Amino acid sequence: MSLLRGLTAGVCLFLGGNLFAKELFLAPDGSDDQPGTLAKPLGTLMKAQDLAVPGDTVWIRGGTYKAKPDQIARTQRIWVYLNYFDKSGKPGQAIRYWAYRDEKPVFDFSEVKPPNTRINAFQVMGSWLHFRGFDIIGTQVNFTGHGQSCNLENQGSHNLIERLSLHDSQAIGIYALAGSDNLFLNCDAFNNHDYTSEDGHGGNVDGFGCHPTKGSINNTFRGCRAWFNSDDGYDCITSREAVRFENCWAMYNGFGTKFQKLGDGNGFKVGGFGATPPQAVPKPAPRHLTEGCLAVRNRASGFYANHHLMGGDWSFNSAYRNANDFNFLMRPPDNSADIDGVGHQITGNLSYRGNRDVTKLNVDQCVLKDNAFATEKKFTDASFESVDESLLTGPRQPDGSLPKVAFLRPVDAKLAGTAGYTAYPGSKPAAK
User: Fold this and answer.
1) CATH fold group of domain 1-205
2) Are the C-beta atoms of residues 317 and 345 closer than 8 Å to each other?
3) Ordered DSSP codes for 381-392
4) Do residues 302 and 324 touch, judged by C-beta distance below 8 A?
5) Pairing between strand 165-169 and 243-246?
């Protein structure tokens, strides 16, 4: 990149080792005919991508970016991609798409409804990208058959998706299908319900879905929240590699905002391969980790092994008022029939007021330590500092981390230090 380009296209920065890294600016009243400076911002993300190189930052000014039908970036078979990110950064020189300072950008896709297509608002194919601090809303479904739309789908590697709010749409919040070493940090997915396709119950709309292909390793969800999504909060069915859920919350999934019954409604659906024939399931299946998480009042199970073919690691999780707080149902490696869960490592978990606190578990063939399940403890509301659910959907902290609340923290100091999500040693999300 020439010195002239670095000076004229934006303000020079030293970021990620690139002496001539520049800043580009985007605003709702901007224009792609402008140079992308603070005074003369661009109008679309796709033009910003055209101009950006590794190490650059695209600053997104606050306000609403109302997408129009003529702004579709790419169409491929039955998919429409409204924004298609296929330009990559480099190690130590990510391309950043960040909200500017404390401003709140909102990308609204409610007016884009191409017929009989799956609509992905953000399609992330590139690697070494960092998205931070904006909302995606209104992504539509405009077909009546089987399928889904997505607010953001990731297929790149080494990406950081941080502090996004994906809500009030007919689409999955974040859908991760391929790529390695991705971190989904401090994101919220809520009020997402497909009322158009199939029976309108929204059975394909999860808050967060992660279904990595073989070789797509080290994908982590940390500090995220999912509530009032019409299917599951978190779902990693058919994953060919292990997925990590750390310090995440799931509330009211499987319900509409008036608690009408909709899709499956698991808080964390961890694994499983559905009706996949024996010859097609991975051998061995991946071992998933769910740690320091909270599941509250989900329609089905708070934590669910979902017929998985391998035991999982479940540590310092708390469940409250779910139909099943913990459901460890499995199948043998040939995916042939349901069995009570075996091979699970279950440490420091807590349950209270679930219709069933623990089910489908072969205790003799699992490792259990320091758990505080309701069948073993005589809990009452007074056993906890708070059982006020309204605290869970409150504002995040200034750094984007989860609200600091006393919800379901045991009054007993010894118990509070050994069991439940509030005892999780990594409860404060760390930077990547």
Assistant:
1) Pectate Lyase C-like (2.160.20)
2) no
3) GGGBSB--GGGG
4) yes
5) unpaired
* Contact predicate 92/130, CB 8 Å: no
- Short-list 429, 124, 27, CA closest to 248: 429
Give the C-alpha separation, 408 to 395, whole Å. Answer: 18
Q: What are phi and psi of 383, to 5 degrees?
A: -75, -10
The 10s digit of each residue's pLDDT in 297-354 is 999 999 999 999 999 999 999 999 999 999 999 999 999 999 999 999 999 999 999 9
CB 320 within 8 A of CB 342: no
Q: Give me the phi and psi of 45, to 5 degrees please.
A: -65, -35
Could you tell me the residue ranges of all domains in the chain? Answer: 1-205
Query: Which residue type sits at 62?
Result: G
d(CA 142, CA 195): 10
| CA–CA separation, 89 and 109 (whole Å) | 26
Between CA 389 and CA 391 the distance in angstroms is 5
pLDDT digits 0-9 by tens, 256-305:
999 999 999 999 999 999 999 999 999 999 999 999 999 999 999 999 99
Strands annotated E in 260-347: 268-269, 289-291, 294-296, 301-304, 313-315, 318-320, 324-327, 345-347
Computed over every residue of the chain, the mean pLDDT equals 93
In Å, how far from its chain's centre is CA 209?
Answer: 7
Q: Which of residues 364 and 375 earns the better pLDDT score?
A: 364
CA angle (354 as vertex; 351, 359 as ends), nearest 5:
80
Please report which helix (H) or strand (E) contains residue 57, including its range. Answer: strand 57-60
**How far is residue 233's CA from residue 230's CA, in Å, rounded to a whole number?**
9
Report whether 184 contacts 220 (CB < 8 A). yes
In this structure, what are the phi and psi dihedrals at residue 147, rounded to the nearest 5 degrees?
150, -170
Q: How far apart are CA 313 and CA 244, in angstroms?
A: 10
CB-based burial label for 348 (10 Å; 0-12, 13-18, 19+)? buried
Q: Write out the two tokens for 367.
A: 């490792």
Task: Please identify which residue in the block is written with the tokens 């670095």.
Answer: 6
Reported pTM: 0.94
Strands (E), 200-288: 208-210, 219-222, 225-229, 234-235, 243-246, 249-251, 268-269
Report which residue type is found at 357: D
Predicted local confidence at residue 144, as pLDDT? 84
List all residues 6 or more positions away from 397 whose beta carbon is below 8 Å from its beta carbon.
403, 404
